[in-house]
Amino acid sequence: LWNIKVPLNATEQRAIDADNRAIAREIGILKRTGETESPRLRNLLLRRSRHSQSLRSRISSTVTLLRDMKGKKGLVFHESIGAANEIGGALATEMHRARVYHSKLGPPTRYQNLLLYTENQVDVLVTCRALDEGLDVPNTEFGLISASTSSTRQRIQRLGRIVRINPGKEKAKVITLYALPHEENLLRAESEALEGVSNVHWFEARS
Asked: How many whole angstroms from its chain centre is CA 150?
């Protein structure tokens, strides 16, 4: 597991700071009333998550990392269809054998792109949530989670796409990009749970 911290630009940092202040205020109100959650708090947390998922550095770091993975077979996950298209376009420009797969593509295109990946005609498939379940391509060598939710189920599904056993496949690499402290906390807890099972490395991307 490679966990890589990506930076925020000034505009993104201001948006996250505003989210954090609003979340802190709402938590303070809830504590005074003896409550632990509210629709407003859920919405604020969702807004912060979306701001984190949309960081520009997630896309640029993804493309940079994939330069060193060229020719290897892997899946790239993002939460945004627009970001998936942008990553796919950047990879095509750099002559990667890559395709995208998401719900806004027509069924024939989705089927063709998935078939190209399963039959080793392309190396990288960039996708959103459409592949969280049901994909079985055990010769996948790596996964790059450019953006994700905090869902444990989603995390397990995505890891499961990558670590399936295949003849001659001794190990797989899962790269996860993160930005905010609560994202790091989840990854730290995961690394503790997987101690002795997986090698975990921590890095920080350049701004």
From this structure: 10
pLDDT in tens, 83-134: 999 999 999 999 999 999 999 999 999 999 999 999 999 999 999 876 655 6
- In the block, tokens 């010769």 appear at 139
pLDDT at 134: 61
Spatial CA neighbour of 84 closest among 115, 128, 51 = 128
Tell me the Cα Rg of the chain.
18
Which residues does 177 contact at the CB level (< 8 Å), separation at least 6? Answer: 4, 5, 6, 58, 61, 62, 144, 145, 146, 147, 205
Contact 205, 61 (CB under 8 A): yes
- Continuous segment of H or E residues that includes residue 83: helix 81-93
pLDDT for 36? 92
For residue 204, give the H/E element and its range. Answer: strand 201-204
- The residue-averaged pLDDT of 54-63 equals 97
- The model's pTM is 0.93
Rounded CA separation 112/116 (Å)? 6
> Cα separations (Å) of 86 from 51, 141, 147?
17, 22, 14
